[in-house]
Amino acid sequence: GADSGPALEISHLTKRFGALTALDDVTLTVRQGEIRGIVGPNGSGKTTLFNVISGLYRPSAGQVSGVGRDISRARPYQLSLAGMARTFQNLRLFSQMTVRENILVVLDRSRTSTVWQYAVWPVGVLSNEHRLQAEADRVLKEYGLTAFADAHPQSLPYGIQRRIEIARAMAGRPSLLLLDEPAAGLNGEEVGQLSSIVRSIRDQGVTVVLIEHNMGLVMSLCERITVLAAGSVIAEGSPAEVAATPEVIEAYLGD
Ligand code: ADP
């Protein structure tokens, strides 16, 4: 089940685009409740790795297990229903919807719209609506977004938009959260807030994997770091171990 074994297990994963090998025999394991950093120079395969894990790309070879099962060939919507959520490097919020509506669209309907509730319509419909609004309120409050509930995302500062994206990912109550460069475009104060948000998400038992270029954030936040270069894992370990690896220093100087 999802409560036993690693949160994510990637085994001999290769992803090719024609003649280009974007990921070359990548093996890595993320344990439950960990905050894992994925770093590496541009073009090293980080986003491709996320795209394979989240079902947007099929592996050319190798396996991916996560959210309690083999997910090598799972579709993105299946992974979302199974408890995986992700954010994107470029924000993908619904611009025609308010912040509240952005949260409402991803709230878990599976536990609400039962036959029994609709059998006593309209009571069921109303109580369901009430429950969804209350849940949206809870999420907005948790992420400090209550004041922005009725605004449209693009009218808000970029740092707030990034926070909305994390709140929306968390609204579906995932067990595994993938963050693609969550600190990109944030100022120092916002990076500090992001760090607290990610820690509190982990404290709720959610496993977090993040791609990040802000090395200060990665070093202070992640328990373990995986370093990719040219599609291969060149180092993995604690922040101190990784920082002391000659291959890592070389890969970064060569970027
Ligand atoms: P990173 O996120 O570390 O910057 P990427 O995963 O975006 O690296 O890219 C790794 C390599 O794969 C790059 O050479 C990139 O051009 C290539 N690549 C990524 N996605 C595709 C795609 N859909 N089609 C062709 N090549 C791709």
UniProtKB/TrEMBL annotation:
GO molecular function: ATP binding
Main location: membrane
Segments forming domain ABC transporter: 8-255
ATP-binding found in the keyword field: yes
Keywords carried by this UniProt record: ATP-binding, Cell membrane, Membrane, Nucleotide-binding, Transmembrane, Transmembrane helix, Transport
Highest taxon, organism lineage: Bacteria
Compartments where found: Cell membrane
Descriptive protein name: Branched-chain amino acid ABC transporter ATP-binding protein/permease
Organism: Streptomyces poriferorum
Lineage: Bacteria, Bacillati, Actinomycetota, Actinomycetes, Kitasatosporales
